[in-house]
Amino acid sequence: MRQLPLYILTILVGVCLASIFIAPFYAGLPSVGLSGQNVTISPESFQMPDDADGDAPPLQDAAPSAPQTTAARQVDPDGFSVTGKETGPLQRIEPRQPLSDIGHASPPAPPPPPVPVDTTARPKLLYRPVATAAGTVEASGYRIAIEGINVVPPEETCTADGAAVWPCGMAARTAFRNWLRSRAIECNVPDQPQDALVSTQCKLGTTDLAAWLVDNGWARASDGSPLAANMKKAEEARLGIFGSPPPSLPAAVDLPSPGLSGDLSPPSAEPQPAPLPVPAPDAPFPPKPQ
């Protein structure tokens, strides 16, 4: 009996809290008309206003119209025109100017000609030369074009008997590079290397580089060069670029391959004996640290 008032009080508090939370939502609901009140609803008429002149026809469902066909225009290949009204011949106009400097691609500019050496040039040994083409060498910071010959570029191709095309420019460069074998050459060059390609004379020992290239058919003598007779002999003998393609590109011969220890002797094909095992020392190992 003592718990009854507390139970009733709990129910009343719950009802109050429920009414507090539900009342705001109930106020937003549409109110229903009270009984006994006459409510009349008059429908509104939505009609399009008549035209100002009064002669606008009533709206009707538009029937799909038949597709209009036009007569095909006969095209004359000899007198073609876009609109069909031009009767005179078409004239070609000049193209418009490019929108920027890179509008049209232009072919690359040819490399500048080699600069002849000046009066300060003197014979100088250049070490580890590398042939970039049959007639051009890079060594010790100098870029040299051999004087008295026309350089054979690596991309040049030659036609042999039977219309066979072969890369004679690459073969000429390979033959020239293998003949040099990175040996020192003597050239008439200035004291300091220049950025420009210089044209001068070079020798490998007592052999002139230009004469070797022309005699073996790997270069052509320039106009007015004393090597013109040598080139004629190479053409008659069908040597180098004047003959047939070789069975394979020229390979370096007698070229030592350095090993890891710096020994320049060629590797031997005989098997090397296995190294002898190292004997163990007689002294005992030191004791463990305490």
Could you walk me through the main structural features you see in this protein, from its secondary elements to its overall organization?
Helices cover 18% and strands 14% of the residues. The chain contains four helices and 13 strands. It has helices at residues 4-27, 168-180, 209-215, 228-236, and strands at 115-116, 122-126, 130-133, 136-139, 142-146, 149-150, 158-159, 165-166, 185-189, 198-200, 202-204, 207-208, 220-221. The strands form four sheets. It has a five-stranded mixed beta sheet with strand order 1-10-5-4-3. The protein starts with a helix and ends in a 54-residue tail after the last helix.
